[in-house]
Amino acid sequence: MKLINIGFGNMVNADRVIGIVSPDSAPIKRLVQDAREKGALIDASYGRRTQAVLIMDSDHVILSGIPLESITGRFAQEEES
After folding, report:
1. Which of 17, 65, 67, 77 could serve as a FRET partner for 43 with CA atoms 20 to 30 Å apart?
2. Model pTM score
3. pLDDT for 35-49, tens place per residue?
4. 49-63 burial, b for 16+ CB within 10 Å, e for fewer?
5. Residue 29 in contact with residue 59, Cβ under 8 Å?
6. Burial of 18 (0-12, 13-18, 19+ CB in 10 A)
7. 3-state secondary structure at position 21
8. Which residues pair with 48 in a beta bridge?
9. 17: enclosing H helix or E strand
């Protein structure tokens, strides 16, 4: 199991991430709202502005307060190891 830091000491299992997307588009905003309504939203942004949305294979949606590029860079580093 490979854990990736998504900011502020929070970690996710890299093998269970389906996608990492920007929170700015309307379809992603609807996805986040739907996850919130069904109790599958995890807010790991610590009150900061959401900069990345992680979509998990368990239908959970995770909000991160660090930039999308930082998270994808961490995934790339992990794959090289």
Report:
1. 77
2. 0.94
3. 999 999 999 999 999
4. ebbbbbbbeeeebbb
5. no
6. exposed
7. strand
8. none
9. strand 17-21
